[in-house]
Amino acid sequence: MLNLNEKMVTLGTQRSVIRELFEFGKMKAAEIGAENVFDFSIGNPSVPAPASINETAVKMLSEMDPVLLHGYTSAQGDAGVRSLLADSVNRRFHTAYTADNFYMSTGAAAALCCCFHGLCNRGDEVIIFAPYFPEYTVFVEGAGAKPVIVPADTEAFQIDFDALEQAITPNTKAVIVNSPNNPSGAVYSAETIQKLSSVLEAKSKQYGHTIFLISDEPYREIVFSGINVPFLPDYYHNTLVSYSWSKSLSLPGERMGYVLVPASVDDFAQVYAAIAGAGRSLGYVNAPSLFQRVCAACADETSDISVYETNKNLLLNSLREMGYHVVEPGGTFYMFPRSLEQDDTAFAERAKAHNLLIVPGCGFGCPGHVRISYCVPTERIEKSLPAFEALANEYR
Ligand code: PLP
User: Fold this and answer.
1) Is residue 107 within 6 Å of ligand 1 at its C-beta?
2) Is the CB of 178 under 6 A from ligand 1?
């Protein structure tokens, strides 16, 4: 009798729908050739990191004291690194942060886990807006808290405020937002953020405790045609920011990100300590030393993300011409059209028969839709269009 933690066994055994499709795509590619599989399943950036990343890493590897470079850093991250980051964020958002506002993490995933573990006690609730990144529920439950899902506003993928009002209870500890959004590509407008902060201010007051806003922003820089992404700490003083360079610098495998804890949050020192304590209890020790330094040195850069807008325009216009209903993404490299039948899983299965790999929306808490990840070579989109057309024809 092993008596293992069954929940962990399940998480470790069942692949996510996205991973399942990705693996299917690899198998199919071996069978019929990669050029005949239109894999839009996974959010792995398709453009390389800028040359400066490799150059900086090589320079550090050849010139820095290896004992320092490969040694432990402070648990919250190297002080020089955090100071460079504060300068970069201050330049871009006209803020006045210091090194002490940053906690370095292994990607946004660890940043979020530090937030949930640091803020939540057992039984606390965390509000999540559909459609959402599926790992949120895993992370929230892992912290002993309860995810509360607010159904999607499928007209514009902003926020359904009536549904939000109903979801907030005296147990609400935090609300997480992700804009630009995976999977819809929506960017929350300043008006949406203003309204959200008013609701959170009022509810915090009503219940007599702080409700935190966690802004998960790994796609912050990937926005189209000059769209402005509101900087949430400007709107709501109890905002924590979770960031990562996985998407903007095309470094998902290097696992580098941070939690930004603005000094404006209630009881800043306690909150920062809770984030650091969560990192300690989760055994994160410190984020990888080399890439802390590389990311901080290149913090003002992005990879060449222009292909995502080219892909968005091509796919959006083509799908709309074929009769698909798609809300135009403001950023990211995802779009979230309506499935042509209510059962999005059945629809994605029918797409598979055309070698089109798209992810059912139910996994994102928003049935009746499918996610298309267009972080792929533009040529793959061009070649896939007849398959999207043939799929649409099945429903005419
Ligand atoms: N949050 C969102 C919305 C994401 O889409 C992802 C990754 O796809 C993450 C967090 C996790 O990012 P990271 O790879 O930096 O852990």
Assistant:
1) yes
2) yes
118 within ligand 1 shell (Cβ under 6 A) = no
User: Separation of 250 CA from ligand 1 center, angstroms?
Assistant: 12
pLDDT digits (tens, 9 = 90+) for 26-44: 999 999 999 999 999 999 9
Query: Global pTM?
Result: 0.97
The model's pLDDT over 1-11, given as tens digits with 9 standing for 90+, comes to 899 999 999 99
Residue 361 Cα to ligand 1 midpoint, Å, equals 17
244 lines ligand 1 (CB under 6 A): yes
Q: What is the pLDDT of residues 178-197, one digit of tens each?
A: 999 999 999 999 999 999 99
* Structure confidence by residue, pLDDT tens digits, 322-363: 999 999 999 999 999 999 999 999 999 999 999 999 999 999
What is the SS3 assignment for the chain?
CCCCCHHHHHHHHCCCHHHHHHHHHHHHHHHHCHHHCEECCCCCCCCCCCHHHHHHHHHHHHHCCHHHHCCCCCCCCCHHHHHHHHHHHHHHHCCCCCHHHEEEECHHHHHHHHHHHHHCCCCCEEEEECCCCCHHHHHHHHCCCEEEEECCCCCCCCCCHHHHHHHCCCCEEEEEECCCCCCCCCCCCHHHHHHHHHHHHHHHHHHCCCCEEEEECCCCCCECCCCCCCCHHHCCCCEEEEEECCCCCCCHHHCCEEEECCCCCCCHHHHHHHHHHHHHHCCCCCCCHHHHHHHHHCCCCCCCCHHHHHHHHHHHHHHHHCCCCCCCCCECCEECCECCCCCHHHHHHHHHCCCEECEEHHHHCCCCEEEEECCCCHHHHHHHHHHHHHHHHCCC
Query: 138 CA distance to ligand 1 centroid (A)?
Result: 13
Ligand 1 centroid to residue 107 C-alpha, Å: 7
